[in-house]
Amino acid sequence: MQEDLEDRVNRTCRGVAAFRAVELLYNPAPIVRDELSVQLAGPQYIDVIKKRWEEAVQRSGCDPAAPHHLLFAARARIIDDMVIQELQQLVAHSAAAAAQPEAAHHPTARCSSPRKENHHHQQQQQQQQQKGDVCLQVVSVGCGVDTRPWRLALPSCVAWFDVDQQPVISLKHKLLAEAGAQQQQQQEVRFPLKCSSYTALAADATSSSWLADLAAAGFNQTLPTVWVLEGLLYYLTPEQGAVLFADIAAAGSPGKCVVLASHIPACNLEANRSCPAGHSLAGLFKSWVGDLVGSDGQLLQHDATASLQQQQQLRAAELQSSSTAIGSSSSSRVSRWGPAEVSADLAVLLRECYNAEALYPYGLDYSGGKQLPEVECVVTVRLEA
Predict the structure, then answer these.
(1) Has residue 125 got a pLDDT over 90?
(2) In which element (H, E) is residue 121 found?
(3) What one-character-per-residue DSSP string does 253-296 give?
(4) Angle between helix 346-354 and 71-105 (nearest 10)
């Protein structure tokens, strides 16, 4: 039984890394350059995904010379850019908020040049980063063997938290060590961290204790935070997904919390439920984006299973008691998510934003012999101030 679990963790985690590795090794114009993924995936899984890439090119009928990318490699790049954009916006928002009291005491500051003000904020950020202070956080839930802390051009003041179940975190720690990737402040590493600090937390995000564990690991509720849920939500039931967002709301600060979450359309869920029993993905997906976001753009609460507001208050109380880093205001507050922004399908985003075509990541046996019209999208939602 343990061997089966180990094999499954290896296949899912290293297989996803292999999409990025194949993109780098065999695509003449890779959309994501992830040298570390080559080490993490390993030759066996790279060979498997390379064959899938070749089959996808042949199946699509696209010009091999035209820009094209396997969809999961494209998803990585799309979310990469979203993470950087959201971090920059959070920095700008924090700088603007910090400047307001000063402007109140100096009325002439309202008439100053925006360029000068931006330069002043940039200087403040640079000074803060030079001191090594943490001013931003990223929490990647269901991280797998994602490599963003080692390959993104992150602000140096970012504290990065990876969260996944114990077998995944153990595998990732082992593979990173073998690849020569920095995890702490050791010297002479092949792949240095691009963030201020890195923490890998072994925790089940569907449990009642994971937020307390996150706080104990150093998460600071008062800091602006980007939460990344890539390739996670469709493995959760609608109720589990709703509770996860209630948890994040309990841990976030209004106006300083944004979630980037990939999700699937109804056609992908239907294909997953009806694909052959022997398929590696058969029956794994449990929800689609319509289970998360209502027709009015608001997050659904699924009150039939439990009172999410009560659960959120309970989570916040647990956080407050578990760590002094969690502000006391959260114990009595029920935060409200703003309207969700649901992107177009990843293939459409790739075409519109990167002028390239997406290659269908699954064999046609998965979807009843025909290509799905849509595969995956990204949901962005912010905690209202």
Answers:
(1) no
(2) helix 114-130
(3) -TTSEEEEEEE--HHHHHHHHHS-TTSTTTT-----GGGTB-TT
(4) 70
Query: According to DSSP H, which parts of 27-113 are helical?
Result: 35-60, 71-105
Structure token pair of residue 258: 């944004």
Residue 244 carries which side chain, given as an amino acid letter? L
Q: Cα(20)–Cα(231) distance, rounded to whole angstroms? A: 14
Give residue for tokens 């910090």: 98
Query: What does the pLDDT look like over 294-324, one tens digit per residue?
Result: 999 999 988 644 444 555 455 555 555 544 3
Measured CA distances, 186 to 149, 172, 318 (Å): 15, 17, 34
| Residue 273, amino acid | R
Residue 180 tokens read as 């020569």
Write out the two tokens for 134: 């943490």
What distance, in Å, lies between the first and last C-alpha atoms of the chain?
48
Question: Quick one: pLDDT at residue 325?
Answer: 42
- The rounded distance, in Å, linking the Cα atoms of 382 and 385 is 9
β-strands 377-382, 341-342 pairing: antiparallel
55, exposed or middle or buried, with CB in 10 Å at 0-12, 13-18, 19+? middle
Rg (CA), the chain: 21
Asked if 164 and 199 count as a contact pair (C-beta separation under 8 A), the reply is no
Residue 302: both structure tokens together:
């699924």
